[in-house]
Amino acid sequence: MEDELEPSLRPRTQIQGRILLLTICAAGIGGTFQFGYNLSIINAPTSKSLLVNNIFVVLAAILFGFSRKAGSFEMIMLGRLLVGVSAGVSMNIQPMYLGESAPKELRGAVAMSSAIFTALGIVMGQVVGLRELLGDPQAWPLLLASCLVPGVLQLASLPLVPESPRYLLIDCGDTEACLAALRRLRGSGDLARELEELEEERAACQGCRARRPWELFQHRALRRQVTSLVVLGSAMELCGNDLMYAYASSVFQKAGVPEAKVQYATIGTGSCELLMAIVSCVAVERMGRRVLLIGGYSLMACWGSIFTVALCLQVAGVDEGWRVQARLTSTSPLPRPWQSSFPWTLYLAVACIFASILSFGIGPAGVTGILATELFDQMARPAACMVCGALMWIMLFLVSLGFPFIMEALSHFLYVPFLGVCVCGAIYTGLFLPETKGKTLQEISEELHRLNFPRRAQGPTWRSPEVIQSTEL
User: Fold this and answer.
1) How many other C-beta atoms lie within 10 A of the C-beta of residue 190?
2) pTM of the predicted model, to two decimals?
3) In which element (H, E) is residue 324 found?
4) pLDDT tier, 8 (very low <50, low <70, confident <90, very high otherwise)
């Protein structure tokens, strides 16, 4: 019987897989890929909503392309502003769209593809930004305008994929369009169970309106969700991963990598994050979200501690070498030697940089982005994605602004504050974040409701019974 069914099921499964893969690629190529790509290329020389979002990319590319002829750096600044708007919108919409369109068995893996496209964008930006390609200062306009390519690819491919079934049923009330979208995404199999789950979620949202961002902080029913979003969203940007990227070039140079070759070594850091994003995308539905987050933050704390020890030994080695040289040559002060008496600490620091970036890709890079999709219902999800995106950008801005001052103030202990963030992220995840693997969005909402109102979930309070002295009814 199984042999008779397999040939008929195979074409349907292949079509389902192709549509879902096209949906992931169409959303990602102009979504978080743009974020990662534009994040890395600026450092090289020194349907939805998603469709409309590409307008900013096209306008930015035009400004970049003609900035040199116009002799206007203001055009570059305006173009970067528009690219930032595009990246901010795509980072919020893409995980939400993919999470709503995927089946519950693949929801985590599909939503975490956003992290893959972010890392892929970083690597592609690093490659295109090589001096042999578009990294030359004379090619700045072309390098910045190259963001037009993924934007055009998304404009061409995104109309070919369906709208989110949840959006069509719950927000638009169009059952037929929802069923048609499900058939395109799942094939022609039995969709009754999934449609029933969507109807249950629709009934739970009946009579409710979409929440505004500030309303999320006012409702007790969303207390644990908002707290988790704020804590883990902040931890993702404050965990020190960006510090590793920023510190990589100087460590590579001190480790003996020629200055002209540092750009190739830097590509290795982006490749590490891409590799682990792919691995975690495969593992998230087997190991769960909590395990990946706890493991990622714990490993980052471990490697960060070793990185700090390596920097301390490096400084201690420089000081010791300076004292020895001063005693042997003269009593007058000498300039401190550049080379440490513990040269192996530089290679240890390089290893810690790669290990920390790998650990970041295991969990925090991908799992954090899908929290807003899974922890909030349909009425609060768009506002939650907006809050999460704004929070991450604010934290990234603060870290970028404060990093030079932290480096100057703490010297070789500069990673210590970020160690504390990693430890707190792991502890919070272990104590307060519920596991969402294999659950429908409605089941997740019900579990969070019980956690937010524990006394109601326990039923009526038990009181000591009165002793009945009579048998009279």
Assistant:
1) 9
2) 0.75
3) helix 289-329
4) very low
